Amino acid sequence: MALIAILPGDGIGPEVTAQARRVLEALDLGVSFEEAPVGGAAYHAAGHPLPSETLDLAKRADAILFGAVGDPACDTLDRHLRPEQAILGLRKELGFWANLRPAKMMPGMEDASTLRPEIARAIDMVIVRELVGDVYFGEKGRRETADGRREGHDLMSYAEDEVRRIAVVGFEMAQRRRKSLISVDKANVLETSQLWRDVVNELAPDYPEVALQHMYVDNAAMQMVRNPGQFDVVITGNLFGDILSDQASMCVGSIGLLPSASLRAWAGDNGLYEPIHGSAPDIAGQGKANPCAAILSAAMLLRHSLDNEDAALKIEAAVAGALAGGVRTPDMGGADSTSQMGDAILAAL
Amino acid sequence: MALIAILPGDGIGPEVTAQARRVLEALDLGVSFEEAPVGGAAYHAAGHPLPSETLDLAKRADAILFGAVGDPACDTLDRHLRPEQAILGLRKELGFWANLRPAKMMPGMEDASTLRPEIARAIDMVIVRELVGDVYFGEKGRRETADGRREGHDLMSYAEDEVRRIAVVGFEMAQRRRKSLISVDKANVLETSQLWRDVVNELAPDYPEVALQHMYVDNAAMQMVRNPGQFDVVITGNLFGDILSDQASMCVGSIGLLPSASLRAWAGDNGLYEPIHGSAPDIAGQGKANPCAAILSAAMLLRHSLDNEDAALKIEAAVAGALAGGVRTPDMGGADSTSQMGDAILAAL
Ligand SMILES: CC(C)[C@H](C(=O)O)[C@@H](O)C(=O)O
Ligand SMILES: CC(C)[C@H](C(=O)O)[C@@H](O)C(=O)O
Q: Binding positions for Mg(2+) (chains A, B) (predicted)?
């Protein structure tokens, strides 16, 4: 029996993962669930944002449904004890190197975007972000120079195999979609980007149907405002991906609707699934959170880790159905509660 | 007599700097001009994007008016010979460490933005980007690992004095504007950002009237789409500034209107002034380019390097006047030519 680890985390994390669990349970998939604390919740309970029991559960599981981490009460802690370290730790420890972030305008949701409706309507992209390399995990530190000044440094680096595996994901995905791949880098300045570009170019002949384009990251940030509809599949490094995927999500507007997956294999392996929104401590515990992103993350979990495309499509259709039926949580300008949205999605299953 | 170096560069650079020069000449400031090639134009003429004569002129000058660099014919050259290296070289050689990028919606220009008019209308920020540190100029290279894999690296680093001087510019500018300063970093991941944040915090007590806020770069990229009007003055490092300043410009929409300054002192010293748009090779030589950004860059030049605020304001008013009079180059949906826009601005002086 497949085991799904549920790591609810902080703020609205527990509320939204609870709804996602309800949906998974309703599908009667014959899976089991186990929960463990993570982030600020784990720090308060066990003195560490990623306790070893939680990490063990994540490793044992077939898939991980993650809520959100982030807790203002932890702001003054040493960086290594802060809630966000839990998600970095899970990525690194479990080797989840590919982050998939679909950003798609749902029909009728254009009002949520600050972009003009005709611009927003065309958004339908997937950002494929490398997740365990780059400046995130390179050697970092602080030193004092000979003349007593403080200096901080972080090493940015990529090896060709790290780039190749993420590029393959991008090409494969483009092949199944609109056959356009945009690789984002800063090759006019960075040596890592130059290597990135070389490796991506070396793969291109294997995918003759895919139109490959390279774009500098500053231009990509512009183009995502000017004409986000031009993007189909985007591949990029950890740091640029962090920035661009959040920007793309905000272009869609309803960040309460957007799921993500962090994988180490395209299918049939453990992965971590989480809404792209944060822990939103200001509305935690009030039943105001939108559970759609968590529920759609559960759909990605079924698709990628449990190889159950049918169930994934069922969930996605149910979410679309509930939205088409007019159910709206406060983030979408409505007054329905977290569980009312859950109810509507369950009813539409 | 003050010497203004004009480095027209590639593509539309010569056309737009020619109009800016006309405006400067019309003001009868008693300055002299000297021109030199840069970028692709210099590569074709002298084999290097930043020939020593050009660099010498830049060093001798009291201020530099720069057009744009970028030339598709140079795409296959080694990175160190490409046109963009000229601008990096000038920044580094002349020590221009502070890049000021105002992004302001001009009245009546909301249509140019892809953001909804009510969102776009509120944009009025200055991005202050550090320009000679960060991963741009750290040690970089490629090596082969023991098992024969290619690996690329770039060292990101900041020293406290580099951060302090840019933060001071930010605080001073916020003090003169709406008294809000947002410092953008990635302190939850990067040691350089942690140092950045510490140094900025240390300065805060010197500016009790300025409200200081720290924002992660991924969140900043989101907020610039969600509510760009919340930004007054933004300080950030070289890499994040590259991305965010382009994003902010595109939020305004009319990138043909936006100037920039690269400085090493707030006033009374040499600086480099350039439109934020690129060389736009596709429309070069056709009289279609919008010279407003170059002309507004000349205004910044007068303000910062020649200490002539009056003349700067005069130019800014003339540009606003020409636009209010309905003159529009093709980038703004009109049919007026580069020189017609120049004429209108001269007439409004
Ligand atoms: C919390 C933080 C370390 C993390 C990141 O930068 O990767 C977050 O922004 C994300 O994108 O998941
Ligand atoms: C051309 C390039 C090296 C440069 C940079 O990255 O700084 C440009 O994008 C800019 O912002 O002026």
A: 218, 242, 246
Ligand 2 center from residue A327 Cα (angstroms): 46
Indicate the DSSP class of residue B106: P
Per-residue pLDDT tens for A258-283? 999 999 988 889 999 999 999 999 99
Q: Which class does domain A110-253 fall in? A: alpha beta
pLDDT tens-digit map of B68-77 = 999 999 988 9
Closest Cα of chain A to B321: distance in Å?
27
Other Cβ atoms less than 10 A from the Cβ of A96: the count is 23
What's at B104, amino acid-wise?
Answer: K
Q: Is the CB of B189 under 6 A from ligand 1?
A: yes
Nearest ligand to the C-alpha atom of residue A278: 1
Burial class (CB in 10 A: 0-12, 13-18, 19+), B179: middle
Given ligand 1 and candidates A10, A87, A97, which is best to mutate, with the most ligand atoms within 8 Å of its CB?
Answer: A87
Determine contact, residues A214/A246, Cβ cutoff 8 Å. no
Q: Which residue's CA is the nearest one to ligand 1's atom 3?
A: A84
Q: Where in chain B is the domain with CATH 3.40.718.10?
A: 1-105+254-349, 110-236+246-253
Q: What is the DSSP letter of A106?
A: P
- Its CATH class, for the domain covering B110-236+246-253, is alpha beta
**Cβ atoms within 10 Å of A235's Cβ, excluding its own:** 29
Q: Which of A156, A184, A236, A249 to mutate to test the interface with B (most CBs of B within 10 A)?
A: A156
The residues of B assigned a catalytic role are 136, 186, 218, 242, 246
User: Which is the closest atom of ligand 1 to the Cα of A242?
Assistant: 11
Alpha-helical runs (H) found in chain B: 13-26, 40-46, 52-60, 84-94, 117-120, 160-176, 191-203, 217-226, 238-252, 292-304, 309-324, 338-348
Q: Which helix (H) or strand (E) holds A160?
A: helix A160-176
The class that CATH gives domain A1-102+258-349 is: alpha beta
Which helix (H) or strand (E) segment is A16 a member of? helix A13-26
Region B281-294 average pLDDT: 97
The mean per-residue pLDDT over the stretch B298-312 comes to: 97
pTM for this structure? Answer: 0.96
Any chain A CB within 8 A of the CB of B244?
yes
Q: Which amino acid is at A226?
A: R
Q: What is the mean pLDDT of residues A215-241?
A: 97
* Tens digit of each residue's pLDDT (9 = 90 or more) over A6-32: 999 999 999 999 999 999 999 999 999
Q: Look at residue A187 and tell me whether its pLDDT is greater than 90.
A: yes
Instruction: Give yes or no for A189 touching B (CB within 8 A).
Output: yes
Q: Please enumerate in sequence order all residues whose Cβ is within 8 A of that of A155, keeping only pairs 6 or more positions apart, or say none.
A: A135, A138, A139, A140, B153, B154, B155, B156
Contact A150 B159 (CB under 8 A): yes
Res. A164: pLDDT tops 90: yes
Encode burial over B260-274: b for 16+ CB neighbours within 10 A, e otherwise. bbbbbbeeebbbbbb
Fold designation for B1-105+254-349: Isopropylmalate Dehydrogenase (3.40.718)
Contacts of A90 (CB under 8 A, 6+ apart): A38, A50, A55, A58, A64, A66, A96, A272
Q: CATH 3.40.718.10 in chain A, residues?
A: 1-102+258-349, 110-253
Tokens of A85: 């370290």
